[in-house]
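User: I'm writing a tutorial on reading structure tokens. Could you give me a worked example: one chain, its sequence, then its tokens, then a sentence or two explaining what the tokens reveal?
Assistant: Sure. Here is the example chain.
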Amino acid sequence: MLLAGVSAHAVSCTPQAEMPAPDREAVMAAATPIAGAIASQNLTSSKPRSCLRLSRLEGIRGGAQAAAPLLKGGELHWRNAYFLTATELKGPTDTQFFCTTPDSSLTVTINLRSLPPGQYALVLGEYTGSPMDGQIALILGFDSKWKLGGLSFARAP
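And here are its predicted structure tokens:
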């Protein structure tokens, strides 16, 4: 029982509404060109901003290419962002974040596998006007600046 309480404090989540403006702006400023490079399939431009090993980056490249129809022709609108702090982790571990809105009306649960200690951001956006109404999620890691750590795509319901 005590161990569960200790691990719960090893990570934290700050929803967009509670992020300090400079932090929120820095995350969005990093995410926007990365998302643009992915949508335009100019994936070589996202490589210098990646915090991933080359082998994992190649997997992301394949996923981005498969998702191109979801984003093509749309305009990116960021909807939500979360600042994830995991600096107290002892090493890479499966990590769960609970992000509650300021009014406590919603809790978003974020599960990340083999997460190393550090600071992260999750940004969620949609490509309005694209024929398939694509959605994008970027995980950014902070390593002197925000860099791509992972991504996911979906078609809007």
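What the tokens reveal: The radius of gyration is 16 Å. Residues 2-155 form one domain.
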